[in-house]
Amino acid sequence: MKKYLSLLLALLVALSCTSLAFAAEEDEEEISPEMKELGEYIMNHQAEAFDLAVEGYTCQSEKVEAELLTDGTVNVTEYWTYSCRNFEKMTKFERTLAKSEDYEISDIRVVMGSEELERFNSYEEIQAATESEGEKYPERKYTLDETDTGYEINAYLKNWNATTTIKVLYTVKGAVQFHNDIMEFNWELIGEDIPYEAGLLTGYVILPYGAQRDEVKAWTYDQEDYELVIESGELVGLTVNEVPANHAVDIRVTAPLYLFPDAADAYKTGQDAYMQILQEENDPDQDPAYTAREARKDQIIRIAAPVVLIGGAALILIVSRIRRKKKA
């Protein structure tokens, strides 16, 4: 019943706004007193309309950016975009960041737009603050609870019949490993705990500046409709369409050690690992013959490129002189 009432109110809002718009275009004085009264009533009763809206939303997209610093620290930013349609509303955002023996998470923050949300110790504190503001529903406030298995974020908002993006920011230490021969970053962009589908997931791993594109490698697992692209020596991009509920998306990236001159000793393994990683990923570079062929190709290209440029310049110069002689 509540759903039908909300849909009816949505229809009334649309009809009244449309009628007012058309009437204003013709002649502002021709708007009937009844129509004006209806429009003013709806505009002055937003709270009642929010009450009637049905709790529900669709996750349009998820985006995760992981920026690797030169000491191995990782700054992660998650973007969660939700859409409320057909007079739906969203009043709560939930996210759990899992703990691990392999890494530590710190400096957790929640942001909407350019505003960092206010953190409270409990929902009771949020209720008290909301009442002191004269509001019925809490907005732009959150709690962060640490448990044995993770960090539970509960953010409260008022998204009504619209689209909103919530950002979760945090710092990770220990997710990057420095082997004797390579840097390895193995990260779960989203885990199996996400209970709803997402239309699109985009993941980016941002590396320190300085590497060539072919010095960086990346892999992902168990994805159907996806694209993994090493866009440059500083950026790896992963796109996954139609992510199912409770479906994890992982990414593994390797890059040269010279990008990390400040590598923390705590993240160094003291072992060679690059060839083992290539074998685990069934990468063609695990074959020494393939690697040698690729190296010869690169060498030929490096030698040939200047020769082609010099030859082209010489040819242009010769043609130019011939034309000048003909004109003379």
User: How many DSSP-defined strands?
Assistant: 17
Largest sheet entry: 8 strands, mixed
Q: What is the CATH architecture assignment of the largest domain?
A: Sandwich
Seen as an oligomer or otherwise, the chain set is single chain
Global morphology? extended
Q: Give, in spatial order, the strands making up the sheet with the most strands.
A: 6-5-10-3-2-13-16-15
Instruction: Give the total of domains.
Output: 3
Number of helices: 6
Structural class, from secondary structure content? Answer: alpha+beta
Q: What is the CA-atom radius of gyration, in angstroms? A: 29 Å
Tell me the distance between the termini. Answer: 95 Å
What's the SSE pattern?
Answer: HHHEEEEEEEHEEEEEEEEEEHH
The mean pLDDT is 82
The CATH topology assignment of the largest domain is Immunoglobulin-like
Considering DSSP H and I runs of 4 or more, what fraction of the residues is helical?
A: 25-40%
CATH class category of the largest domain: Mainly Beta
- Outline the low-pLDDT stretches: 1-9, 11-28, 290-295
What proportion of the residues form beta strands (DSSP E)? 35-45%
Domain DUF2207: 63-254
Keywords: Membrane, Signal, Transmembrane, Transmembrane helix
Transmembrane segments: 300-319
Signal peptide: 1-23
Protein model, in words:
It is extended, with a radius of gyration of 29 Å. The longest helix is centred in the last third of the chain and has 40 residues, at 288-327. The strands form 3 sheets. It has an 8-stranded mixed beta sheet with strand order 6-5-10-3-2-13-16-15, with no helix packed on it. The chain has a 5-stranded mixed beta sheet with strand order 1-4-9-8-7. By secondary structure, it is α+β, with helices and mostly antiparallel strands. It is built from 6 helices and 17 strands. 30% of the residues lie in helices and 37% in strands. It has 3 domains: 2-52; 58-280, Immunoglobulin-like (Sandwich), CATH 2.60.40; 288-323. Helix 1 (2-26) crosses helix 2 (33-43). Residues 1-23 form the signal peptide. Residues 63-254 form the DUF2207 domain. It holds the Pfam family DUF2207. InterPro entries: DUF2207 (IPR018702). Keywords: Membrane, Signal, Transmembrane, Transmembrane helix.
